[in-house]
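LOG
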Amino acid sequence: MATEPQTTTEAQGGAPCPEPGPAIFAYDGSDLAGYAIEQAGFQLSANREALVVCVWQPADVGFKPMKGKELHAAAANEVEAAAKETAAHGAELAEKAGFRAEPLTVEAAPTWKGLVKVAEDHTCGLIVIGSHQRSGLLGHLAGSVAAATISHFQSSVLVIHKPE
Protein backbone atom coordinates (compact mmCIF):
# COMPACT_ATOMS: atom_id res chain seq x y z
CA MET A 1 0.00 0.00 0.00
CA ALA A 2 1.49 3.33 -1.07
CA THR A 3 1.48 6.21 1.35
CA GLU A 4 1.41 9.90 0.68
CA PRO A 5 4.85 11.56 0.86
CA GLN A 6 5.21 13.49 4.08
CA THR A 7 6.03 17.16 3.96
CA THR A 8 5.83 17.57 7.69
CA THR A 9 7.55 16.25 10.74
CA GLU A 10 4.27 14.68 11.86
CA ALA A 11 5.87 11.22 11.80
CA GLN A 12 8.14 12.40 14.61
CA GLY A 13 5.24 14.11 16.38
CA GLY A 14 6.35 17.60 15.43
CA ALA A 15 4.63 20.50 13.79
CA PRO A 16 4.45 20.83 10.00
CA CYS A 17 7.66 22.12 8.41
CA PRO A 18 7.41 25.72 7.25
CA GLU A 19 7.62 26.52 3.57
CA PRO A 20 11.25 27.06 2.66
CA GLY A 21 12.17 30.71 2.28
CA PRO A 22 14.66 31.90 -0.27
CA ALA A 23 18.07 30.29 -0.32
CA ILE A 24 21.03 32.59 0.31
CA PHE A 25 24.03 32.24 -2.00
CA ALA A 26 27.23 33.71 -0.61
CA TYR A 27 28.90 35.23 -3.67
CA ASP A 28 32.24 37.02 -3.68
CA GLY A 29 33.02 36.86 -7.39
CA SER A 30 35.39 33.91 -7.03
CA ASP A 31 35.33 30.78 -9.18
CA LEU A 32 34.57 28.78 -6.03
CA ALA A 33 31.47 30.85 -5.25
CA GLY A 34 30.28 30.46 -8.83
CA TYR A 35 30.86 26.72 -8.64
CA ALA A 36 28.81 26.56 -5.42
CA ILE A 37 25.86 28.23 -7.18
CA GLU A 38 26.16 25.86 -10.13
CA GLN A 39 26.27 22.78 -7.89
CA ALA A 40 23.34 24.02 -5.81
CA GLY A 41 21.35 23.96 -9.04
CA PHE A 42 21.80 20.17 -9.02
CA GLN A 43 21.08 19.78 -5.29
CA LEU A 44 18.07 22.05 -4.74
CA SER A 45 14.66 22.20 -6.35
CA ALA A 46 14.30 24.19 -9.54
CA ASN A 47 12.70 27.62 -9.59
CA ARG A 48 13.41 28.25 -5.91
CA GLU A 49 13.71 31.86 -4.83
CA ALA A 50 17.30 32.88 -4.06
CA LEU A 51 19.16 35.91 -2.79
CA VAL A 52 22.70 36.24 -4.07
CA VAL A 53 24.56 38.13 -1.37
CA CYS A 54 27.84 39.98 -1.75
CA VAL A 55 29.14 41.14 1.63
CA TRP A 56 31.40 44.17 1.49
CA GLN A 57 33.51 46.23 3.84
CA PRO A 58 34.98 49.65 3.09
CA ALA A 59 38.25 48.92 4.91
CA ASP A 60 38.77 45.43 3.43
CA VAL A 61 36.90 44.93 0.17
CA GLY A 62 36.12 41.25 0.93
CA PHE A 63 35.29 40.19 -2.64
CA LYS A 64 36.83 40.04 -6.12
CA PRO A 65 35.57 42.97 -8.27
CA MET A 66 34.31 42.11 -11.76
CA LYS A 67 36.33 43.08 -14.83
CA GLY A 68 39.57 43.46 -12.83
CA LYS A 69 38.58 46.82 -11.37
CA GLU A 70 41.05 48.46 -9.02
CA LEU A 71 39.33 49.84 -5.94
CA HIS A 72 40.40 52.20 -3.22
CA ALA A 73 38.98 50.65 -0.09
CA ALA A 74 38.56 54.06 1.57
CA ALA A 75 36.05 55.09 -1.14
CA ALA A 76 33.02 53.24 0.25
CA ASN A 77 30.75 54.32 -2.61
CA GLU A 78 33.11 52.69 -5.14
CA VAL A 79 33.29 49.52 -3.08
CA GLU A 80 29.50 49.37 -2.69
CA ALA A 81 28.96 49.92 -6.42
CA ALA A 82 31.43 47.14 -7.25
CA ALA A 83 29.70 44.85 -4.72
CA LYS A 84 26.36 45.50 -6.45
CA GLU A 85 27.91 44.58 -9.80
CA THR A 86 29.41 41.43 -8.28
CA ALA A 87 26.07 40.40 -6.71
CA ALA A 88 24.31 41.00 -10.04
CA HIS A 89 26.80 38.71 -11.78
CA GLY A 90 26.15 36.03 -9.15
CA ALA A 91 22.40 36.43 -9.65
CA GLU A 92 22.89 35.81 -13.38
CA LEU A 93 24.74 32.59 -12.54
CA ALA A 94 21.94 31.56 -10.18
CA GLU A 95 19.31 32.24 -12.88
CA LYS A 96 21.27 29.99 -15.26
CA ALA A 97 21.31 27.31 -12.55
CA GLY A 98 17.50 27.39 -12.37
CA PHE A 99 16.79 29.79 -9.49
CA ARG A 100 14.65 32.92 -9.33
CA ALA A 101 17.50 35.08 -8.09
CA GLU A 102 17.85 38.62 -6.84
CA PRO A 103 21.18 40.30 -6.09
CA LEU A 104 21.72 41.82 -2.67
CA THR A 105 24.64 43.57 -1.01
CA VAL A 106 25.30 44.08 2.66
CA GLU A 107 28.01 46.00 4.47
CA ALA A 108 29.28 43.81 7.30
CA ALA A 109 32.41 42.51 8.95
CA PRO A 110 33.19 39.74 9.29
CA THR A 111 31.50 38.25 6.24
CA TRP A 112 29.59 35.56 8.14
CA LYS A 113 27.74 38.23 10.13
CA GLY A 114 26.39 39.76 6.93
CA LEU A 115 25.27 36.38 5.60
CA VAL A 116 23.53 35.42 8.84
CA LYS A 117 21.85 38.83 9.16
CA VAL A 118 20.45 38.66 5.62
CA ALA A 119 19.26 35.10 6.20
CA GLU A 120 17.51 36.07 9.42
CA ASP A 121 16.03 39.28 7.98
CA HIS A 122 14.59 37.38 4.98
CA THR A 123 13.54 34.25 6.91
CA CYS A 124 15.85 32.06 4.88
CA GLY A 125 16.29 28.46 5.92
CA LEU A 126 19.44 27.78 3.92
CA ILE A 127 22.76 29.44 3.18
CA VAL A 128 24.83 28.00 0.33
CA ILE A 129 28.55 28.68 0.47
CA GLY A 130 31.65 27.43 -1.31
CA SER A 131 34.57 26.31 0.83
CA HIS A 132 38.16 25.37 0.20
CA GLN A 133 39.07 21.87 1.28
CA ARG A 134 41.77 22.29 3.85
CA SER A 135 43.49 19.34 5.40
CA GLY A 136 45.57 18.71 8.47
CA LEU A 137 45.73 20.85 11.56
CA LEU A 138 45.49 24.12 9.59
CA GLY A 139 42.22 22.96 8.06
CA HIS A 140 40.74 22.37 11.51
CA LEU A 141 42.07 25.53 13.13
CA ALA A 142 41.98 28.11 10.34
CA GLY A 143 38.97 30.37 10.55
CA SER A 144 36.85 30.44 7.43
CA VAL A 145 33.64 32.07 6.34
CA ALA A 146 32.01 28.67 5.93
CA ALA A 147 32.97 27.44 9.40
CA ALA A 148 31.90 30.69 11.06
CA THR A 149 28.60 30.72 9.17
CA ILE A 150 27.86 27.15 10.24
CA SER A 151 28.58 27.91 13.87
CA HIS A 152 26.48 31.11 13.98
CA PHE A 153 23.48 30.34 11.76
CA GLN A 154 20.62 28.54 13.49
CA SER A 155 19.35 26.84 10.34
CA SER A 156 20.98 24.87 7.51
CA VAL A 157 24.19 25.63 5.62
CA LEU A 158 25.07 23.78 2.43
CA VAL A 159 28.84 23.78 2.00
CA ILE A 160 30.02 23.04 -1.54
CA HIS A 161 33.59 21.82 -2.03
CA LYS A 162 35.21 22.07 -5.45
CA PRO A 163 37.31 19.04 -6.38
CA GLU A 164 40.94 19.84 -7.00
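LOG (cont.) second protein
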Amino acid sequence: MYNKNVIYNIALYNYEVYSITMISKELLKGSIKSIVLKILTQHERMYGYELTQKVEELSNGTIKLTFGALYPILHKLEDDDLVETESEIVNNRNRIYYKLSNKGRKSALEKIEELKVFTSIIQKIIEHKA
Protein backbone atom coordinates (compact mmCIF):
# COMPACT_ATOMS: atom_id res chain seq x y z
CA MET A 1 0.00 0.00 0.00
CA TYR A 2 1.32 3.44 -0.91
CA ASN A 3 1.57 6.32 1.54
CA LYS A 4 -0.83 9.06 0.41
CA ASN A 5 1.54 11.75 1.66
CA VAL A 6 4.26 10.83 -0.81
CA ILE A 7 4.57 12.28 -4.30
CA TYR A 8 4.77 9.51 -6.86
CA ASN A 9 6.64 10.00 -10.11
CA ILE A 10 5.80 7.43 -12.74
CA ALA A 11 7.63 7.26 -16.08
CA LEU A 12 5.26 6.19 -18.82
CA TYR A 13 6.19 6.09 -22.51
CA ASN A 14 8.76 8.91 -22.19
CA TYR A 15 6.24 11.15 -20.45
CA GLU A 16 6.40 11.84 -16.76
CA VAL A 17 3.06 11.56 -15.06
CA TYR A 18 2.74 12.99 -11.58
CA SER A 19 0.12 11.60 -9.27
CA ILE A 20 0.03 13.84 -6.24
CA THR A 21 -2.55 12.87 -3.70
CA MET A 22 -1.66 15.19 -0.85
CA ILE A 23 1.18 17.31 0.46
CA SER A 24 1.58 16.97 4.20
CA LYS A 25 0.80 19.91 6.44
CA GLU A 26 4.30 19.69 7.88
CA LEU A 27 5.92 20.26 4.47
CA LEU A 28 3.58 23.08 3.58
CA LYS A 29 3.61 24.89 6.91
CA GLY A 30 7.09 26.34 6.55
CA SER A 31 6.46 27.54 3.01
CA ILE A 32 3.13 29.36 3.26
CA LYS A 33 4.68 32.73 4.10
CA SER A 34 7.03 32.55 1.11
CA ILE A 35 4.22 31.41 -1.18
CA VAL A 36 1.98 34.30 -0.10
CA LEU A 37 4.78 36.84 -0.48
CA LYS A 38 5.63 35.50 -3.94
CA ILE A 39 2.03 35.73 -5.14
CA LEU A 40 1.66 39.25 -3.75
CA THR A 41 4.76 40.36 -5.70
CA GLN A 42 2.84 39.57 -8.87
CA HIS A 43 -0.41 41.36 -7.94
CA GLU A 44 -1.07 44.89 -6.79
CA ARG A 45 -3.44 43.66 -4.09
CA MET A 46 -5.43 40.54 -3.26
CA TYR A 47 -7.99 39.44 -0.71
CA GLY A 48 -7.80 36.18 1.24
CA TYR A 49 -10.11 34.02 -0.85
CA GLU A 50 -8.39 35.25 -4.00
CA LEU A 51 -5.02 34.17 -2.56
CA THR A 52 -6.31 30.69 -1.74
CA GLN A 53 -7.67 30.30 -5.26
CA LYS A 54 -4.41 31.49 -6.84
CA VAL A 55 -2.35 29.01 -4.79
CA GLU A 56 -4.71 26.20 -5.78
CA GLU A 57 -4.53 27.24 -9.45
CA LEU A 58 -0.73 27.54 -9.52
CA SER A 59 -0.31 24.18 -7.77
CA ASN A 60 -2.78 22.43 -10.08
CA GLY A 61 -5.01 21.77 -7.10
CA THR A 62 -2.41 20.05 -4.94
CA ILE A 63 -2.14 22.87 -2.41
CA LYS A 64 -5.38 24.02 -0.87
CA LEU A 65 -4.78 26.70 1.72
CA THR A 66 -7.42 26.88 4.39
CA PHE A 67 -8.40 30.20 5.87
CA GLY A 68 -7.16 28.84 9.20
CA ALA A 69 -3.68 28.54 7.69
CA LEU A 70 -3.75 31.70 5.57
CA TYR A 71 -5.12 34.40 7.86
CA PRO A 72 -2.64 33.94 10.72
CA ILE A 73 0.15 34.34 8.13
CA LEU A 74 -1.48 37.47 6.67
CA HIS A 75 -1.96 38.95 10.15
CA LYS A 76 1.67 38.21 11.04
CA LEU A 77 2.82 39.83 7.78
CA GLU A 78 0.71 42.87 8.65
CA ASP A 79 2.10 43.00 12.22
CA ASP A 80 5.63 42.88 10.74
CA ASP A 81 4.77 45.76 8.37
CA LEU A 82 5.32 43.53 5.33
CA VAL A 83 1.78 43.97 4.03
CA GLU A 84 -0.68 46.82 4.16
CA THR A 85 -4.42 46.40 4.16
CA GLU A 86 -7.19 48.22 2.35
CA SER A 87 -10.83 47.77 3.20
CA GLU A 88 -13.57 47.93 0.59
CA ILE A 89 -17.29 47.20 0.67
CA VAL A 90 -18.23 44.60 -1.96
CA ASN A 91 -21.82 43.30 -2.13
CA ASN A 92 -22.54 44.82 1.28
CA ARG A 93 -19.57 42.96 2.80
CA ASN A 94 -16.30 44.35 4.03
CA ARG A 95 -13.46 42.88 1.96
CA ILE A 96 -9.87 43.25 3.20
CA TYR A 97 -7.23 43.52 0.50
CA TYR A 98 -3.56 42.82 1.20
CA LYS A 99 -0.68 44.41 -0.66
CA LEU A 100 3.05 44.40 -0.10
CA SER A 101 4.65 47.35 1.61
CA ASN A 102 8.09 48.52 0.48
CA LYS A 103 9.59 46.50 3.32
CA GLY A 104 7.43 43.55 2.21
CA ARG A 105 8.75 43.71 -1.37
CA LYS A 106 12.32 43.45 -0.09
CA SER A 107 11.41 40.64 2.30
CA ALA A 108 9.55 38.79 -0.48
CA LEU A 109 12.63 38.78 -2.70
CA GLU A 110 14.74 37.45 0.18
CA LYS A 111 12.21 34.75 1.11
CA ILE A 112 11.79 33.66 -2.51
CA GLU A 113 15.54 33.33 -2.96
CA GLU A 114 15.84 31.47 0.35
CA LEU A 115 13.12 29.02 -0.74
CA LYS A 116 14.81 28.49 -4.13
CA VAL A 117 18.11 27.63 -2.44
CA PHE A 118 16.38 25.35 0.06
CA THR A 119 14.41 23.43 -2.58
CA SER A 120 17.55 23.07 -4.69
CA ILE A 121 19.41 21.53 -1.74
CA ILE A 122 16.51 19.21 -0.93
CA GLN A 123 16.39 18.14 -4.60
CA LYS A 124 20.12 17.28 -4.50
CA ILE A 125 19.63 15.24 -1.33
CA ILE A 126 16.66 13.37 -2.77
CA GLU A 127 18.46 12.59 -6.03
CA HIS A 128 21.74 11.54 -4.37
CA LYS A 129 22.67 7.94 -5.04
CA ALA A 130 24.86 6.25 -2.47
